[in-house]
Amino acid sequence: MAMKSRYRRLIWIAVALAALTIATALVLKAFRSNLVFFFTPSQVVAGEAPKNRQFRIGGLVEEGSVKRDGGGTTVQFKITDLHNVVAVSYVGILPDLFKEGKGAVAQGALLPDGTFQASNVLAKHDENYMPPEAAEALKRGGQTESGPAVGGTKP
After folding, report:
1. Is residue 48 domain-shared with residue 100, that is, in the same domain?
2. 86 touches 137 (CB < 8 A)
Protein backbone atom coordinates (compact mmCIF):
# COMPACT_ATOMS: atom_id res chain seq x y z
CA MET A 1 0.00 0.00 0.00
CA ALA A 2 2.91 2.35 0.61
CA MET A 3 3.89 2.13 -3.06
CA LYS A 4 0.41 2.99 -4.19
CA SER A 5 0.43 6.08 -1.97
CA ARG A 6 3.82 7.12 -3.37
CA TYR A 7 2.63 6.80 -6.99
CA ARG A 8 -0.51 8.75 -6.20
CA ARG A 9 1.61 11.54 -4.68
CA LEU A 10 3.91 11.59 -7.75
CA ILE A 11 0.91 11.82 -10.05
CA TRP A 12 -0.48 14.78 -8.08
CA ILE A 13 2.90 16.50 -8.19
CA ALA A 14 3.13 15.94 -11.96
CA VAL A 15 -0.42 17.27 -12.47
CA ALA A 16 0.33 20.33 -10.31
CA LEU A 17 3.55 21.05 -12.24
CA ALA A 18 1.74 20.71 -15.57
CA ALA A 19 -1.02 23.07 -14.40
CA LEU A 20 1.57 25.57 -13.16
CA THR A 21 3.42 25.40 -16.48
CA ILE A 22 0.22 25.98 -18.47
CA ALA A 23 -0.84 28.88 -16.22
CA THR A 24 2.60 30.50 -16.55
CA ALA A 25 2.53 30.14 -20.34
CA LEU A 26 -0.93 31.74 -20.53
CA VAL A 27 0.08 34.67 -18.30
CA LEU A 28 3.24 35.30 -20.33
CA LYS A 29 1.29 35.17 -23.60
CA ALA A 30 -1.28 37.67 -22.30
CA PHE A 31 1.47 39.95 -21.01
CA ARG A 32 3.33 39.84 -24.31
CA SER A 33 0.24 40.61 -26.39
CA ASN A 34 -0.56 43.66 -24.21
CA LEU A 35 2.98 45.01 -24.16
CA VAL A 36 3.27 48.17 -26.26
CA PHE A 37 6.71 49.61 -26.97
CA PHE A 38 7.58 53.26 -27.60
CA PHE A 39 9.54 54.43 -30.65
CA THR A 40 10.70 57.84 -31.84
CA PRO A 41 10.14 58.96 -35.45
CA SER A 42 13.86 58.38 -36.14
CA GLN A 43 13.56 54.78 -34.97
CA VAL A 44 10.47 54.27 -37.13
CA VAL A 45 12.21 55.72 -40.21
CA ALA A 46 15.25 53.50 -39.51
CA GLY A 47 12.99 50.42 -39.57
CA GLU A 48 13.37 49.58 -35.87
CA ALA A 49 9.61 49.64 -35.21
CA PRO A 50 7.55 46.46 -35.64
CA LYS A 51 5.67 46.11 -38.91
CA ASN A 52 2.89 43.81 -37.74
CA ARG A 53 2.01 44.91 -34.22
CA GLN A 54 0.98 47.97 -32.28
CA PHE A 55 3.44 50.40 -30.75
CA ARG A 56 3.57 54.00 -29.59
CA ILE A 57 5.24 56.87 -31.37
CA GLY A 58 5.86 60.23 -29.78
CA GLY A 59 7.37 63.61 -30.39
CA LEU A 60 6.20 67.05 -31.45
CA VAL A 61 3.25 67.66 -33.75
CA GLU A 62 4.89 69.34 -36.74
CA GLU A 63 3.80 72.94 -37.34
CA GLY A 64 1.37 73.28 -40.27
CA SER A 65 0.89 69.52 -40.64
CA VAL A 66 -2.59 69.06 -39.13
CA LYS A 67 -5.21 68.43 -41.83
CA ARG A 68 -8.83 67.48 -41.16
CA ASP A 69 -11.00 65.59 -43.66
CA GLY A 70 -14.74 65.42 -44.00
CA GLY A 71 -16.65 66.00 -40.78
CA GLY A 72 -13.49 66.72 -38.84
CA THR A 73 -13.01 63.32 -37.21
CA THR A 74 -10.40 62.09 -39.71
CA VAL A 75 -7.12 63.86 -39.06
CA GLN A 76 -3.70 63.64 -40.66
CA PHE A 77 -0.68 65.15 -38.96
CA LYS A 78 3.04 64.60 -38.65
CA ILE A 79 5.07 63.67 -35.57
CA THR A 80 8.72 64.73 -35.46
CA ASP A 81 11.68 64.30 -33.14
CA LEU A 82 13.39 67.17 -35.02
CA HIS A 83 15.44 64.67 -37.04
CA ASN A 84 12.77 62.66 -38.84
CA VAL A 85 9.06 62.93 -39.49
CA VAL A 86 6.34 60.26 -39.59
CA ALA A 87 2.88 60.88 -41.06
CA VAL A 88 0.02 59.89 -38.75
CA SER A 89 -3.61 59.25 -39.64
CA TYR A 90 -6.27 59.18 -36.92
CA VAL A 91 -10.03 58.79 -36.91
CA GLY A 92 -11.63 60.16 -33.77
CA ILE A 93 -11.79 63.18 -31.56
CA LEU A 94 -8.41 64.61 -30.62
CA PRO A 95 -7.72 65.67 -27.02
CA ASP A 96 -8.30 69.36 -26.22
CA LEU A 97 -4.59 69.88 -25.53
CA PHE A 98 -3.54 68.54 -28.95
CA LYS A 99 -1.82 71.40 -30.79
CA GLU A 100 0.84 71.94 -33.43
CA GLY A 101 4.28 72.36 -31.93
CA LYS A 102 3.29 70.49 -28.76
CA GLY A 103 4.07 66.96 -27.63
CA ALA A 104 1.86 64.03 -28.50
CA VAL A 105 1.98 60.26 -28.25
CA ALA A 106 0.02 58.08 -30.66
CA GLN A 107 -0.64 54.36 -30.36
CA GLY A 108 -1.29 52.28 -33.43
CA ALA A 109 0.50 50.44 -36.23
CA LEU A 110 2.39 51.18 -39.42
CA LEU A 111 0.57 50.83 -42.71
CA PRO A 112 2.42 49.37 -45.72
CA ASP A 113 2.90 52.89 -47.16
CA GLY A 114 4.78 54.00 -44.02
CA THR A 115 1.90 56.02 -42.54
CA PHE A 116 1.21 55.42 -38.87
CA GLN A 117 -2.49 54.54 -38.33
CA ALA A 118 -3.26 55.69 -34.80
CA SER A 119 -5.98 54.10 -32.72
CA ASN A 120 -5.38 56.48 -29.80
CA VAL A 121 -3.76 59.92 -29.49
CA LEU A 122 -2.61 61.46 -26.21
CA ALA A 123 -1.60 65.10 -25.86
CA LYS A 124 1.06 66.36 -23.50
CA HIS A 125 -0.51 68.09 -20.53
CA ASP A 126 2.46 68.78 -18.27
CA GLU A 127 6.23 68.51 -18.20
CA ASN A 128 6.15 64.93 -16.88
CA TYR A 129 3.83 63.48 -19.53
CA MET A 130 6.16 62.88 -22.46
CA PRO A 131 7.98 59.54 -22.35
CA PRO A 132 11.66 59.97 -21.46
CA GLU A 133 12.70 58.57 -24.85
CA ALA A 134 10.79 61.30 -26.71
CA ALA A 135 12.11 64.05 -24.44
CA GLU A 136 15.67 62.79 -24.96
CA ALA A 137 15.22 62.66 -28.75
CA LEU A 138 14.00 66.25 -28.74
CA LYS A 139 16.94 67.35 -26.60
CA ARG A 140 19.34 65.68 -29.04
CA GLY A 141 17.54 67.58 -31.81
CA GLY A 142 18.45 70.83 -30.12
CA GLN A 143 15.00 71.95 -29.05
CA THR A 144 12.75 71.55 -26.06
CA GLU A 145 9.01 71.92 -26.27
CA SER A 146 9.18 75.43 -24.90
CA GLY A 147 11.47 76.56 -27.70
CA PRO A 148 15.02 76.24 -29.03
CA ALA A 149 17.76 74.83 -26.88
CA VAL A 150 19.69 77.03 -24.49
CA GLY A 151 21.57 79.71 -26.41
CA GLY A 152 18.90 79.92 -29.13
CA THR A 153 16.18 82.48 -29.51
CA LYS A 154 12.46 82.09 -29.69
CA PRO A 155 10.70 83.43 -32.79
Report:
1. yes
2. no
Number of folded domains in the chain?
A: 2
Angle (nearest 5°) at CA 142 between 141 and 145:
90
Q: What is the CA radius of gyration of the chain?
A: 23
| pLDDT tens string 7-53 | 889 999 999 999 999 999 999 888 777 777 889 999 999 988 888 88
Confidence (pLDDT) at 141: 63
CA 140, distance to chain mean position in Å, is 20
Whole-Å CA distances, 19 to 26, 32, 120 = 11, 20, 37
Q: Does residue 46 share a domain with residue 19?
A: no
153 in a structural domain: no
Q: 3-state SS of 91-146?
A: ECCCCCCCCCCCEEEEEEEECCCCCEEEEEEEECCCCCCCCHHHHHHHHHCCEECC
Contact call for residues 145 and 102 (beta carbons, < 8 A): yes
Closest CA to 38 of 79, 96, 77, 99: 79
Q: How many residues does the chain have?
A: 155
Q: What's the average model confidence in pLDDT over 62-88?
A: 89
Computed from CA positions of residues 117, 94, 68, 66, in that sequence, does the dihedral angle turn out positive or negative?
A: negative
